[in-house]
Amino acid sequence: MAPGVHTVAVIGTGKIGELVLSGLLRAGWPADKLMATARRPARAEELSQRYGIRVVDNLTAVAEADVLAIAVKPQDAAALLDDIGPKVPGDKLVISLCAGLPTSFFGRRLPEGTPVVRVMTNTPALVDEAMTAISAGPHATVAHLALAEEMFKPLGATLRVPESQQDAVTALSGSGPAYFYLLVEAMIDAGILLGLPRQVAHDLIVQTAIGSAVMLRDSGEHPVTLREAVTSPAGTTISAIRELENHGVRAALLAALEAARDRARELADQNK
User: What is the pTM of this model?
Assistant: First the structure.
């Protein structure tokens, strides 16, 4: 699919909606094939000035766009669909970026047979390094999935998963950047404790994180193999790893991701 063949409307242009919008523009999508909606006039003006796109009301977006990318907060989705749902043509593709909400949530509020694709991306989309997981709802075809992939590939990597795995995806990669930022923050603080200036500690850790991530992606090696290559017998690294294990870092990560998964499920239950 060439950029711009379809008109895309981003409904609810907050952080995630703006990520999608800016990514499509960077990929060469013509501005006149993109539109957005916003609640506040000031936000509408900001988006129009920044991206050169039309900012319209929700019903105009429904009438004119081929694809509706819904990026409102999960708790706002029911009210939005109560408003626009009956007016959405059944052949229009709806892409949900609402964390935790299953495609069945949309199916109950849209005309019978409306194709819905559920998407979970993350904030590294800002630098075209997102991880985006895509799942088909009951009426979405292979062509609909391909269209969603073409929209999100410019933001980074894409992966098709069964919808039953989306809550786990939300916990692992949707929220994942925050875990890495927290870890980097803690390591910078540790560098300061060890006597390094803050900027030096920052530069050391950030480049180490980038290099480690590239090796994980490109080497084809298992993380255990890469870790063992740094871990010499009776050396500094194994001493540090022992302390991490003593403090339950691995168990804490498992518990944290389970908590995020459970919260995604709670959001779905609260917004049935």
Answer: 0.90
Point out which residues pair with 9 in neighbouring strands: 35, 68
CB atoms < 10 A from the CB of 136, how many? 20
- What residue has token string 């740094």? 230
153-174 core/surface letters (b: 16 or more CB in 10 A; e: else): ebbbebeeeebeebbbbbbbbb
DSSP letter at 88 equals S
pLDDT one digit per residue (tens) for the chain, 272 residues:
444 578 999 999 888 899 899 988 988 889 999 999 988 889 999 999 999 999 999 999 999 999 999 999 988 999 999 999 999 998 899 999 998 899 999 999 999 999 999 999 999 998 999 999 999 999 999 999 999 999 999 899 999 999 999 999 999 999 999 999 999 999 999 999 999 999 999 999 999 999 999 999 999 999 999 999 999 999 999 999 999 999 999 999 999 999 999 998 888 887 77
What is the arrangement of strands in the sheet containing 130-136, beginning at the earlier edge strand? Answer: 54-55, 34-37, 8-11, 67-70, 93-96, 116-120, 130-136, 156-160
